[in-house]
Amino acid sequence: MNVVLDFVLDRPPLGEAASALWASAERKEFEAVIPAHGVTTVFYLAARQRNSAFARRVVSDLLAVPDVAAVDGAVLRRALTLAWRDFEDAVCAAAAEGAGCDTLVTRDPKGYRGSSVVIMDPPTAVSLLRRGPGSDEVAERSGLPDRSDRRHRSLRPKRESRR
Hints:
Elements: H1 2-8, H2 15-26, E1 31-35, H3 36-49, H4 52-62, E2 67-69, H5 73-82, H6 87-99, E3 103-105, E4 118-120, H7 122-130, H8 135-142, E5 153-155
Parallel strand pairs: 1-2, 1-5, 3-4, 3-5
């Protein structure tokens, strides 16, 4: 959820990359997905930083682009089996698995070691989407399939990602 928050709250240093990812999701260059529990987190933090009216607008806008991955009993049980230090990261990873995502974009890729979903940071995701110099090698190292169709599922970029 950190990338969504970077976009919504324009948090440095990754707010710019998060905004670029959100714009790509709006253009449907990839399918963004956010975990259900993240919506309440975004609302809480946006209301705390500004006010509840701002938070409602943010959540309304947020729900217009990405799909929402279920966070149900099965996802929570899967997160527990991961036995990671950060349970919220485990829930995000389990939700991504459950939603069939192939990529999860986060500020903290090291926190997702052992995930069955490919993990990358926002600048790497932006590079892949822009297909800039070196992006093919990054994609290959990440184990991503050929992205020539530029449509794939992701949990967490552009203001999170659009599924």
